[in-house]
Amino acid sequence: MHRALTMTRRRIVSSIPVLLIVIVGTFLLLEAAPGDAVDAYLLSLGGGDAGLVAELRQSYGLDQSIVKRLTLYVGALLQLDLGWSVAFDRPVLDLIVERLPNTLWLMGAATALAFSLGSLLGIVAGARPGSLTDRTLSIGSLALYAVPSFWLGLVLVLVFAVDLRWFPTAGIETIASGKTGLARVADIAWHLALPVSALGFIYLALFLRMMRAGMAEAWRQDFVLSARAKGLARRRIVLRYVARNALLPLVTMLGLQAAAMLGGSVVVESVFAIPGFGRLAHEAVSGRDAPLLTGIIIVSAVLVIAVNLLVDIAYALLDPRVGSGEVAP
Amino acid sequence: MSAPLAEIRGLSVSYERDDAQSFALQGVDLDIARGRRLAVIGESGSGKSTLALALAGLLAPQARIEGSIGWPGLAHPPVAGRDIGMVFQHPGGSLNPVLTIGEQVAEGAVRHLGLGWRAAKSHALALLEWVRIPDPQAALRAYPHQFSGGQRQRIAIAAAIAARPGLLIADEPTSALDMVVQAEIVALLDDLVREAGMTLVFITHDIALASALADDIAVFQRARLVEKGAAHAVLAQPAHAYTKHLLAAQIDFSTPRLIDGVADA
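^ Those are the sequences you sent over. The predicted structure of the assembly is below.
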């Protein structure tokens, strides 16, 4: 437990410069892109004269120097002020707080589904490498992995929402249903079933294959031979010796996948019309909304750093060698 | 003399390799006497480790086995772990890195002696004490990487004998360790055989180690058993050319210098 605490402290400190780089980098990147919010606004108006342009730029503060604006922005960030969204005409923080939970539910449930079912099936496949079960699961997972998530989403909608009418086609909850408490949770879960499956099943294949490969390698380790020499039950050898050791790289993968899933959720949110974080990012880009986009990227960065911190803690708890100073991770 | 613990008759183990039979053991006849220490000597690839795996019934499924291994003293075929304990060459790799020492030493007792985990852990504590692990109480909750190579091999021995098997097979248990630690492990195995009345099969390429420990010696060369007998007889009057060669190749303080060092010049 002590190792995990020391590591957590070290990781939190080291994530500060990472965050700083993300903030400055994003700011400069958006600065380098041609066009700004005023251009987008004028486009939607159908044009305007030079006086209006200058006036708008001044009111948005876009006439100031880069350094001045960056300092102002970072200063505001420190007070948790993410700025003002020009496209929505609302505070960026409000938008993010409104949209983020939907995506977190989607991602969290999809990750839980992919990791638990994926590693479980991976253990079944890896228990007897080369068996018929193993080959069936490996080929099946490869086929699943080759399917794009938007296509899987559309097929799920066609079959389970349009034909069978078991699930709604889109949205995060029934509009104006007036449901509260558990009824509302059930309603959201019902709406999320298909998008979670679409997003989760793709990654499930990844975890399955990784678990299976890790187990195939673990079978060749000396400690598995010594477990067999001890005459242990096969079940114990598979779970405590083979799968337990193959689980470690899977946990690392979990952290990496969380970031990829944040990107993948844009597609799934579009297919299922879920007002989430991914779609907010899309809307920010099309509206040339630099403050909103910067805010989204920073919050994403914080999210990814937080997930990786959790993964590192989980890893330290699972692998006694990590953080003991003797073996580098 | 009582009936031997194991009677190996015409044992051959082969593998299919590129449509050709490749023999790891060929036509081996050997008795393992109860309560004695047998050293199995031979160079790498001579089939001595295959013999260990064959005795414990741990050969790979694709191995083709001919001949027989009889166990006159046992009413049933031997069960790995309960009737035969094994210690391997690499003490680092033969322990599971993510399980506590306590669990790894105790699990054999849980499996074969029908003990509950609590009772098995106190049994494990006694075993760790017996193999002279410092602070065995703390060791129960520690992990393999926290111990030195020699200590890990002691732990592996404790785990191998947890279910009190009658036969302990040590497959090059000291090859990965330095000389001083080697001597300690050999002394420990020696104590074990004396105190617990176990039978020991000690596999090694080190003929000096074999002569220090063994009652009987069996010499393997290229999958065949070329010489067997009481240790003093084999060492004093080797009958087979290969045994003579092994003895002659032994380097000790009486060996003439192979290289003229700078210090002599």
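The two ends of chain A are 17 Å apart (CA to CA). Residues 2-92 of chain A form one domain.

Shout if you want it in another format.
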